[in-house]
Design goal:
Low-confidence stretches: none
Number of domains: 1
Structural class: mainly alpha
Number of helices: 8
Oligomer: single chain
Strand content: under 5%
Largest sheet: 2 strands, antiparallel
Order of helices and strands: EEHHHHHHHH
Number of strands: 2
Radius of gyration: 15 Å
Length: about 150
């Protein structure tokens, strides 16, 4: 039985381990201004990383961490505002929503929302509850809203 994964276009996806999830998390942690303090995060770091990395196409894997770092720097103000307004300790978060905001893997998720929104949503549905992605999408406001 084949264990190969394919994207919505039939292209083979490399397993997330090829991209080294630990390296992606380490890169995300270099942006503390975009992350909640570890003691206020809802899940262990990386809890949603496999779902996010499954939307990184094979041809994008080489140099992905550098592209992620450039994306985070480019969107610094937007990420800081998202953490401030909807992250842990905010009024919206006190109602139990927006739990992904402040997690390190959120940087990968929003980058994928901007780059391949349909692929991300398709992969996410296979592994995680869609409400988490819907909430993050609402706050981030991607150019293509897929949940409505």
């Amino acid at each position: 039985m084949s264990t190969e994964q394919h994207d919505a276009y039939g292209q083979e996806l490399a397993p997330a381990a090829v991209l080294e999830a630990k390296d992606v998390l380490a890169a995300a942690e270099r942006f503390p201004w975009a992350l909640a303090a570890p003691e206020t995060r809802h899940w262990p770091d990386g809890a949603f990383l496999d779902a996010a990395l499954s939307a990184v196409r094979t041809e994008e894997r080489e140099g992905y961490i550098e592209r992620l770092e450039a994306f985070v720097e480019q969107h610094r103000a937007r990420l800081e505002e998202m953490l401030r307004t909807h992250g842990p300790g905010s009024k919206p978060a006190s109602h139990g929503r927006y739990a992904l905001i402040g997690q390190p893997e959120t940087l990968v998720i929003v980058e994928r929302m901007e780059t391949v929104p349909f692929l991300l949503r398709g992969q996410w549905k296979k592994e995680e509850e869609i409400v988490f992605l819907d909430d993050l999408e609402f706050v981030w406001g991607p150019r293509i809203r897929l949940s409505r």
